[in-house]
Amino acid sequence: MPPRQRCLDCLASEPARLFEAALWIAAEHDPDLQPKQWLNAVTNLRQQVLVALPERPARELAQPLLRRLSELGFQEDNDEPLRPQAALLHHVLQRKRGQPLSLALLAMELARQLDIPLQGVNFPGHFLLCVPGTNHLLDPCTGRHLYLEDCRALLYHHVGPDLELSAEHLSPCTGRQILQRLSRNLRMLHVHAEDYLAALKDAERVIELGPPSSFDHLARAELYRMLDCPQAERYDLECALLLTDDPAQHALLGKRLSEIKGTPPLH
């Protein structure tokens, strides 16, 4: 069974095996990867975390869990330029460096194994975590509590003044949304690394996990353009056209589509 299908099967299980699903995403880019090996590594890591946790109710252990991971060396990857390894979980476990989402996936898997309630929050620009029923969020990189004003400052830092904080930014997200964001991260990192075939795998997965945005179709269309696949590019441009209400975008897409229509078919 191919890694993509194994990923989707993990996501569809009840409960979803989210960390394993993310490992199968990594396996699409590394055919030698054996997810079971890295699941065993997390089980071993659990013991290192467990011995340092205080004796408190489970709902009070999310921050100590995150701080323990930081003590063990797990940190946000700040390399410039950031490489795909920051989002591929087996590399994150090896290097102890990763994007906030990758570190959050590790923390959520450990929390699951230790019966600690912990959920993902699809915050713009910096993935966050939350404990259900609390009045704060958690930074997966440090364990820091983030209250409303902290979240506004974080949003301003990553997105700028044009986006106002909303309840949607602070709400728990689904496993499918998490894997779609992971796939978008990988798509971007592979594009920056000029590995367009790898980026295309990620772009396809983003759309398969769905529902895709117009930007998702535009991103895949651009990859098809760089790989000289005009008919596939045309399909995604047409999808993007249906999903956008921006008149300027409509005009640009229409212009590009008319250019592709004049392209002779490949034989």
Give the secondary structure arrangement, pairings included.
Elements: H1 3-12, H2 18-29, H3 35-50, H4 62-71, E1 75-76, H5 89-95, E2 97-98, H6 100-113, E3 119-121, E4 128-130, E5 137-138, E6 145-146, H7 148-159, H8 175-192, H9 196-209, H10 214-226, H11 230-243, H12 247-261
Parallel strand pairs: 1-2
Antiparallel strand pairs: 3-4, 5-6
Helix pairs in contact: 1-2, 2-3, 2-8, 3-6, 8-9, 9-10, 10-11, 11-12
Protein name: Protein SirB1 N-terminal domain-containing protein
Domain Protein SirB1 N-terminal: 38-183
Organism: Zestomonas carbonaria
Describe the protein.
- The chain has two domains: 3-170, no CATH class; 212-261, no CATH class.
- Helices cover 58% and strands 5% of the residues.
- The protein contains twelve helices and six strands.
- The strands form three sheets. Strands 1-2 form a two-stranded parallel ribbon. A two-stranded antiparallel sheet has the order 3-4.
- The model has no long low-confidence stretch (mean pLDDT 95).
